[in-house]
Amino acid sequence: MESKSPSQSKLPKSATPQKSSQAEPAGTPTTPAPQSWMPWLAAASSVAMLWLTGPTGMGSLGAGSNRLGEFLWPFAFVALVPLFWLVRSQASVWKRPVYLAFFAYYFLSLQGLRHAHPLMILPLIALAGYLAIYPLWFVACLKYFPNVGRKMGMGGNVLWAATLWVGGEWIRNYFATGISVLMLGHTLVDMPGPLLVQIADLGGTYAVSFLLVIVNAGMAEAFFALRESRRPDLEPQFASGPPQAPKWKSSVAVASIALALASLYGAFRLNEKCEPSSTTFLLVGRDEQTEYQQDIHREIAIYQSYAQQTIQAVAEWDQPIDAVVWPESMLSGGQPWLIAEPDLVVPRQPGESQANFSPQEFRRLIEQSQGDFTTRSVMFLDALKSSGRPAPALIGGCGIVRYGAVPQQFSGVLQINPQGQVAETYAKNHLVMFGEYIPLIKSIPVLRDYVPPGLGLDAGTGPQIFEVAGLRVLPNLCIETAVERISVNHLAELRTNPPNVIVTLTNDVWFDHTAVVDHHLRCAQMVAIGCRRPILSSANGGPTAWIDSSGRVVEKVPYDQAGTILATPAIDERTSLYSRLGSWPAGMAAIILLIASLQCVRTRRSIPSSVRTATD
Question: The CN hydrolase domain covers which part of the protein (predicted)?
Fold first, then answer.
């Protein structure tokens, strides 16, 4: 009777080596399978370290929002090492641990979304399930296609891994409307300085993610080499043999050089001086609870609360204020701004065969509404002049309805001049799927007339500039700072006469002070660096904050309190490479990821079924 070696006796039956006329493809593991619990531990360790580098507020589940990333950000440099172990291991089960661990990570990090509406739990589950695909995709490409990095020469392993990860981030930032929250690069926003994230003006958050994967991959290479040097009895991890000393040393060298260059660049950027400005913005933030379908009386009450707080704050400051900034929707007060286009067609009510008004009558109604809106604005601005100073301009979130050939509803921003007249408007470019629109529903004639209020919004088509005391202001609304490309694309369109400051208005009270609010703030900080423009954020129940053009939070109002910030943002004349080039380098990484994925499928199909079962 033939005896088995100890290592063979531990192999699962499906993984027992079998004779085959085909040579096993490069990358096929040959080491004994680890214990079944080890892949679960590896995946859980990775997501635990990522979670600790970020805001961990659990809202109504517990301790409220806190930013552990201020102290635990170094975990970002090793958080992916367990995933690289999974790539090299012969674990028979690895897909399920990776997917479920990252599903839990995204679900817990974004669980505050469920507070917006009782039905939001379903989109939350779908979003977490969707985002968890990308880490699994990353591990799969490295596992089934591992030798490309080795063939690339010095440091190829780390560069290959970083390219695949950033390619996945680019795809998720564009596919299915896109979302930039919880990118790997955001884990370093809270580091002191913030030194390393200054490279975001070269390639956005993608550049910081690229750096972090390089460092993680270098750490993993060094760990594996050290482990194998201390355990000479271990079998080679891959058919091509264990990492040779020059290979892993080159990976560590590339990671060290990248880290050093990023640090030097960050120090250089942080030491550059910006021109002081005398233009003052009063950012007003409160914590007014809102409802998904809110009655007009509640909207009026919220408007009055903001007006009273603003009047009191303006009276307390001993210097003139050029512009008051209110959050998203807070300026409406139950009265959207109506616009009559030259091609106005009077809309019909659902079920009616003809309109109730003639075009002339409808235009008069719109003019009357505009007059009422202006009268209210004049009264409010007159109250601000009671302190003896000139009235400021008012920038606030307000609904906008344009009546043309087809009525259009927008979530917008108005600039009201000191005389109470609406000077400029901006219509939100990026809408929230299922929160502000349902895909394709307006293309279905039977359904489009029955869209619930708030779900029939239209998207704006480009940026707008507000002039405030000599400064050019770029308005931004709601989640647009959490979709990084929006502000970057706006700057690219305005490159001949770029804005001096970005003003973002948001209503984050929906998320009940959970970590979602902090994640939103992190996104705004990275946008400030990527665009090299200060960001002034006015929020209801969210990040009312003054962020400088290096991503540092100069001042912030606590999320659950009412407060004001008097901001005098500095003028930064630097033009970032990111705003010139956009994200096409990360887009090239996405193409490489897709090509690698196709090759992975081909390689996977070429593996004998007996071996394939053992490496799933």
Answer: 282-571
